[in-house]
Amino acid sequence: QVQLQQWGAGLLKPSETLSLTCAVYGGSFSGYYWSWIRQPPGKGLEWIGEINHSGSTTYKSSLKSRVTISVDTSKNQFSLRLTSVTAADTAVYYCARGLGRGYSYGLPYYWGQGTLVTVSS
Amino acid sequence: QSALTQPASVSGSPGQSITISCTGTSSDYVSWYQQHPGKAPKLMIYDGSKRPSGVSNRFSGSKSGNTASLTISGLQAEDEADYYCCSYTSSSTWVFGGGSNLTVL
């Protein structure tokens, strides 16, 4: 059974850096895509970006200048960094593992529990 | 990345069938998620019409032109949730629709 457990700071001030980590338990770490998705309070889902086990990344274009997703295969973990946060970055952040089959290979399938990150002065 | 457009809300009575539309995608492989309040999304349909293990066959996906659809038959109270379509883009990114809130009357 694949489980994702995520953690990180929940309260940030404007201009600070958001940092979240997601640990993967069960199943293989290699061969899959690992994503971050966020959801502002009361709003819809927004895909942030993904990384594969070899470290190749793809980011949403509007966030690309501020986002870094990295992977630590020795620990079966991957991380999200988002710099220069503002109130607009307030959201529940989810980590996810890709489906791993079919045309939707990288499609988020297993999800973490979510972390509410609030940006406020 | 292109936006996917969904109706903000849909409703139906128990036992009925409802369909949620998702327009604006050229991909044949649209996916659908269900999200209950305070919970992580759950994948219901992928590759346009395939169901992951454990998902009820009351959920089905289809596509016509640039509109994908999720149909839920035999509506049950537990189906009340938000539903999101999702598609892979030509930029090798994923994009979600704005979400549809399903109310079971």
Structure commentary:
The complex is a heterodimer of chains A (about 120) and B (about 100). Chain A has strands spanning about 5-10, 10, 20-25, 35-40, 45-50, 55-60, 65-70, 75-80, 90-100, 110, 115-120. Chain A is mostly beta strands and about 120 residues long. Chain A is globular. The termini of chain A are far apart. With about 100 residues, chain B is mainly beta. Helices cover about 0% and strands about 45% of the residues of chain B. In chain B, strands 1, 3, 4, 7, 8 and 9 form a 6-stranded mixed beta sheet that branches. A 3-stranded antiparallel beta sheet of chain B has the order 2-6-5, with no helix packed on it. Chains A and B meet through strand 5 and strand 10 of A and strand 3, strand 7 and strand 8 of B.
Would you tell me the structural class of the helices and strands of chain A? mainly beta
Distance between the termini of chain A: 40 Å
Q: What does the largest sheet of chain B look like? A: 6 strands, mixed
Total of DSSP H or I helical runs spanning 4+ residues of chain B: 0
- Could you state the order of secondary-structure elements of chain B as H and E? EEEEEEEEE
Please state the structural category of chain B: mainly beta
State the helical fraction of chain A. under 10%
Computed CA radius of gyration of chain A, to the nearest angstrom: 14 Å
Tally of DSSP β-strands of chain A: 11
Question: Which sheet architecture does the biggest sheet of chain A show?
Answer: 7 strands, mixed
**SSE arrangement of chain A, N to C:** EEEEEEEEEEE
User: How does the overall form of chain B come out from the CA principal axes?
Assistant: globular
- What's the helix count of chain A? 0
**Main interface: chain pair and counts:** A-B, 25 and 25 residues
Uncertain segments of chain A of ≥5 residues (pLDDT<50)?
Answer: none
Average pLDDT over all residues of chain B: 95
Span of the ends, CA to CA of chain B: 35 Å
